[in-house]
Amino acid sequence: MASAANTNMNAVRETMDVLLEISRLLNTGLDMESLSICVRLCEQGINPEALSSVIKELRRASDTLRASENSTSQG
Question: Engineering a disulfide at 23: which of 28, 68, 72, 75 sits with its beta carbon 3.0 to 4.6 angstroms away?
Fold first, then answer.
């Protein structure tokens, strides 16, 4: 029983390592934790394209906020 659980955990780790490498090659900017959350959301039925759109929009908003803060602190 423990052997099957270990084999399964190794397979999960290997899969996540491959996904992280693909993520890096595609320059997504996702770290292991973020990628893991995205995978779990997709496994729960979230549309991957919609998830991608939300992530992109959050990044745009974050960049805009950072730029606004930088211009305020410099002015």
Answer: 28
Q: Taking each helix axis from N to C terminus, what angle separates 32-43 and 2-25, rounded to the nearest 10 degrees?
A: 110
User: Do 42 and 48 touch, CB atoms closer than 8 A?
Assistant: yes
CB of 49 within 8 A of CB of 29?
Answer: no
CA–CA gap between residue 23 and residue 12 (Å, rounded): 16
How does pLDDT run across 43-62, given as a tens digit for each residue?
A: 999 999 999 999 999 999 99
- The encoded tokens of residue 47 equal 């549309």
Angle, CA of 62, 64 and 68, to the nearest 5°:
115
